[in-house]
């Protein structure tokens, strides 16, 4: 399926141009104005074709969700019949249950919100833990999941051939196993217990690490505490090098400094979220996913 237009926002121009080049789409910017009181005025290009793709990665998501609400409704009112959201990072996927009475199950609420706005949603490595498929979290007519792990695995194989791939927690097993299979390398997974936003306990696996190059691979780094704690233990256990590869470079606050202080060397990420660590680019994979939509 070829959409007719790729809509994007000014702060994602570079990613939009990479995607447009990969899938041969025309691009147009949704013009944003912030009123002095914080409200938004958006303006879409006219005319709007039948099929429209909206690129919006959902790090720092709160205002972006309002942008998507205004954009999708306006596109429909201007005649769009089919709307696809390409959200390389999909926010609010980690809160997938009520851990305390009264807690919002954000994954379900935000997923439903997006499914009501868009016919199709394409994303990369959404954090699905207690939920098996993206459709359960985002019940759009089509929900497509890509992974950054193969491209990160290729990069790691080039930059740290023979490295042990280590997942910092049980949820990362899916990505490290996939990445290790691709190049026939070894992998292992740590055990993690999160005590709070800024406190995690990590236990290294039995796999020996002394003298070895280790690459920590995960879907997302937020505060960096998970990877920093793992890196610290690996260094203490004698790992020769510890590098980090993540799909989603959220890197909130002092996360990068925290990783450096823990002994991390290289930090690599996909361009799902723009960050100086971006080392692999998802445009080709996203273009193939767009092509595969009905
Ligand atoms: C959660 O299980 C994720 O896979 C990441 O490990 C987690 O979100 C990282 O968070 P932080 O960087 O704040 O430790």
Ions and ligands = ribose-5-phosphate
The SSE string, one letter per element, is EHEEEEHEHEHEHEHEEEEHEHEEH
Tell the overall outline.
globular
User: Average pLDDT value?
Assistant: 96
* Sheet with the most strands, sense and barrel status: 6 strands, parallel
Number of helices: 9
Task: Calculate the terminal CA-CA distance, rounded to whole Å.
Answer: 6 Å
Overall strand count: 16
- Rounded to an integer, what's the Rg over CA atoms? 20 Å
Which parts are unreliable, with pLDDT below 50 for 5 consecutive residues or more?
Answer: none
Strand order of the largest sheet: 2-1-5-6-7-8
Quaternary state reads single chain
Structural class: alpha/beta
Strand content: 25-35%
| Portion of residues within helices | 25-40%
Features of the shown structure:
single chain; 294 residues; alpha/beta; 6-stranded parallel β-sheet; 16 strands; 32% helix; globular; binds ribose-5-phosphate
Structural topology:
Elements: E1 5-8, H1 13-23, E2 26-29, E3 31-34, E4 40-43, E5 51-55, H2 61-77, E6 82-87, H3 106-117, E7 120-124, H4 134-137, E8 142-146, H5 149-159, E9 164-167, H6 173-183, E10 187-189, E11 191-196, E12 199-203, E13 213-221, H7 225-236, E14 241-249, H8 255-261, E15 267-270, E16 278-280, H9 283-292
Parallel strand pairs: 1-2, 1-5, 5-6, 6-7, 7-8, 9-10, 9-13, 13-14, 14-15, 15-16
Antiparallel strand pairs: 3-4, 11-12
């Amino acid at each position: 399926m070829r959409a007719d237009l790729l809509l994007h926002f000014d702060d994602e121009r570079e990613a939009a141009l990479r995607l447009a080049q990969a899938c041969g789409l025309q691009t147009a910017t949704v013009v944003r104005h912030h009123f002095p009181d914080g409200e938004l005025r958006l303006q879409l290009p006219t005319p709007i074709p039948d099929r429209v793709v909206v690129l919006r990665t959902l790090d720092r998501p709160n205002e972006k969700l309002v942008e998507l609400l205004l954009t999708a409704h306006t596109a429909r009112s201007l005649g769009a019949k089919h709307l696809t959201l390409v959200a390389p990072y999909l926010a609010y996927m980690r809160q997938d249950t009520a851990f305390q009475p009264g807690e919002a199950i954000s994954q379900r609420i935000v997923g439903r919100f997006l499914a009501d706005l868009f016919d199709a949603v394409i994303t990369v490595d959404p954090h699905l833990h207690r939920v098996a498929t993206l459709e359960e979290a985002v019940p759009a007519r089509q929900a497509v999941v890509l992974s950054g792990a193969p491209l990160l695995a290729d990069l790691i194989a080039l930059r740290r051939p023979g490295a042990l791939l280590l997942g910092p927690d049980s949820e990362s097993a899916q990505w490290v196993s996939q990445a290790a299979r691709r190049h026939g390398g070894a992998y292992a997974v740590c055990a993690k217990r999160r005590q709070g936003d800024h406190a995690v306990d990590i236990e290294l696996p039995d796999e020996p690490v002394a003298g070895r190059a280790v690459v920590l691979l995960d879907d997302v780094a937020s505060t960096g505490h998970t990877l920093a704690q793992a890196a610290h233990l690996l260094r203490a256990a004698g790992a020769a090098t510890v590098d980090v590869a993540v799909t989603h470079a959220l890197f909130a606050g002092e996360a990068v400094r925290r990783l450096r202080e823990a002994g991390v060397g290289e930090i690599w990420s996909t361009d799902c979220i723009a960050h100086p660590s971006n080392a692999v680019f998802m445009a080709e994979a996203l273009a193939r996913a767009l092509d595969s939509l009905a």
